[in-house]
Every structure is written in C-alpha cells, then in structure tokens.
UniProtKB/TrEMBL annotation:
One of its GO terms (molecular function) is monooxygenase activity. Keywords: Monooxygenase, Oxidoreductase. This is Antibiotic biosynthesis monooxygenase. It comes from the Bacteria. PANTHER family: ABM DOMAIN-CONTAINING PROTEIN (PTHR37811:SF2), BLL5343 PROTEIN (PTHR37811). InterPro entries: Dimeric_a/b-barrel, Jasmonate_Hydroxylase-like.
C-alpha cells in the first residue's frame, strides 16, 4: 500500500440559470487560476441537470486562501447574480482513496 496523506475536497453542486452569460469563460479562468494556488491538487467536474465540481486541496488554510482570492471573490458574486439558481458547498477530509481503471 502506498503512503497516503489525507487532503481535502471542496464539493460544489449547483443548478444553473438559462444561457451561458460568459459562464464558460469564467469557469475556465477560475480553473486555470486555482491551479496556480498553493495547495491545489486537482479538479473534477460534470454537469447535467445538476453540476458537480470537486476541487482538491492540501489543507483547510489553502481552501480558505482560495475563497478569499480577489478574482475568485468576483466570480462568486457573478455566480450569485448571473449563473446560479442554487448552489451548495461541502468541504470534506479525504482519509482514504482507491480507484479502478482499465
């Protein structure tokens, strides 16, 4: 078994408003910016009726710093006014992981 360091997952679930309203551009910008932040480990995303984006971080302090990043604050405000009907954020500690692939 490989050495495993626990880390954190920020689970963002949402329903969108109608139309793009520059959402795709901002989503790509935020993903690129998050990748530059200390403690960022990765991101996974899917959207159908409900969107789910999970970002992974080394520490809770890293997550807090990302939440307070200036451009991310702007995106959060625009999300409330332009892009989301509803959203929920959950922060979880990942203590174990495993995977399967062919």
């Amino acid at each position: 078994m490989k050495n495993f360091e626990p880390y954190y997952a920020v689970i963002f679930t949402s329903t969108r408003t109608n139309g793009d309203n520059e959402y795709a551009t901002m989503a790509k910008t935020m993903e690129d910016l998050a990748m530059q932040q200390p403690g960022f480990l990765g991101v996974e995303s899917a959207r159908n009726d409900i969107g789910i984006t999970v970002s992974y971080w080394k520490t809770l302090d890293d997550i807090s710093a990302w939440k307070q990043q200036t451009n991310h604050i702007l995106a959060q405000k625009l999300g409330k006014t332009n892009w989301y009907e509803w959203y929920k954020v959950r922060i979880c500690k990942v203590e174990r992981e495993y995977e399967f692939f062919k």
